[in-house]
Amino acid sequence: MSRIMVIGARGRAGSAAAAEAVRRGHEVTLVARSGPVAGDVTDAGRIAELAAGHDAVIAGVYDGGADPTVFFPEAAAALVNGLTKSSVSRLVWVGLASILPTADGRLLMDTDGYPNEYRSFYLAHQAALDAFKASDLDWVSVAPAGDFNHASPARLGGYRVAPADAGELVSYADLAIALVDEVDRPAHHREAIGVVARQVV
Q: pLDDT tens, 23-81?
């Protein structure tokens, strides 16, 4: 059993990750701006305080009221500083498909027809990864290879790592399997990956 802290525990990705971790018998600390354990992902001191004694942190964070070009770099910097102070090295970050490479090497956001009205949001996520790359954390960013399956959110029970592809889907529940796997059996280190759903019979 591991002690896992989930930041953004009230969000869809964070709550799914927490449920998956509990299902596997882990001890889980749920952190969100408004509880159950109150914490701000941009507050390095609070992160250090809460993370102490944990084996890993899963962070699925978003602030719709903040400028993403400020929020994501600040969150990444606070995670780096707070986790370093608390001696927690494993960070599993909920990433973004837009900044992942496709099969031909182009970033998904640079492919023909991909919506770019939110490009500043995509680049803000990349800035967060750049902060992780500059740190000594053992981090991994796990994202849908394409998008979340909002129409059919059922848990299929599996996933596979795949290049970015706007047509691929994964449910929050299946993404959560990948997130917790990267705590239980870390297979990717200091890199960003995309996952798609895979039916487990």
A: 999 999 999 998 789 999 999 999 999 999 999 999 999 999 999 999 999 999 999 99
Contact (Cβ atoms closer than 8 angstroms) between residue 187 and residue 138? no
Select from 167, 192, 172 the least CA-distant residue to 159: 172
- CA 163, 164, 169, 175 torsion: positive or negative? positive
Q: 137: which residues sit within 8 A by CB, 6+ positions away?
A: 79, 80, 83, 84, 89, 90, 91, 190
Q: What is the pTM assigned to this prediction?
A: 0.96
DSSP state of 107: B
Q: Are 176 and 125 in contact (CB under 8 A)?
A: no
Dihedral pair phi/psi, residue 4, rounded to 5°: -120, 130
Cβ distance 17 to 176 under 8 Å? yes
pLDDT, averaged in runs of 10, over the chain (201 residues): 95 97 98 90 98 98 96 98 97 98 98 95 98 98 96 91 97 98 98 93 60
CA separation for the pair 201, 169 (Å, rounded): 18
- Taking the C-alpha atoms of residue 86 and residue 90, their distance in angstroms, rounded to an integer, is 11
Q: How far apart are CA 108 and CA 142, in angstroms?
A: 15
Neighbours of 110 (CB within 10 A): 15
